Amino acid sequence: MLYAYGPYHHGGQYFRSVLDSAEELGSVYTDDIPVSTEELLHPGYNDTEYSDVTFSAQSNRDDWTRQIAGDNQLGAMFVHVVLTAHTGPDAAAEASKGWANDQLFNFENENRSAFTWVTHWDSAADADQFAEAFNRTLPNRSDDDVGDIEVARAGDHSVVVLAGPEEFRDAIAINGENADVETILQSGAKDSVESMVSVLVDTDVALATGRG
Fold first, then answer.
1. Are 193 and 169 in contact (CB under 8 A)?
2. Torsion-angle region of residue 19: left (phi > 0), alpha (psi -120 to 50) or beta?
3. What ranges make up the beta strands (E) of 83-190?
4. Three-point CA angle 9, 129, 124, nearest 5°
5. What is the separation of C-alpha 150 from the centre of its chain, rounded to a whole number of angstroms?
6. 193 in a domain, yes or no?
7. pLDDT digit string (tens) for 57-68?
8. By residue range, what is the domain housing residue 134?
């Protein structure tokens, strides 16, 4: 529900920030249209353009398959909503600033789904802030899915969230860094991915999809 409501709530706030009167409403649709939900969330922020990225994922295991239909770009709005659900709006606003691109990759076996979410940020500081904000939400979450989340760094500008059972997370290899990242589900288990921080993804929110 939070994600479905977000564009209306933040869209209204965006109108209030860029318009002096209702008579100017038409200009919102004809002048400088926001290129991403980051711009919608942060009017006037000086870097809201998408970054060109090459993100990919593959499965080398028979028991887990890639579900390409589940791939999606989630965007800064998704970051903001996930964090708002379990922390203060100010922290969520700051952590969603600096979003540059992302891609969600879906894997499935007979029993459940799992995800890798590759995010790219304008700066290393923005990437740090996103990861740290996720970590701060953990104490506010009480369901069993919290233990199924890890986060790894892929260079200083990219953060990869792994969401799934331990056997899935232990078999993920991350190749490349920053704007060129591939996540591979290996055929055999490997040592557990080294986590920089523990992270939080709300399952109900994670199933939503978005744009920028």
1. yes
2. beta
3. 99-108, 113-121, 149-153, 158-163, 172-177, 180-185
4. 120
5. 13
6. yes
7. 999 988 899 988
8. 49-206
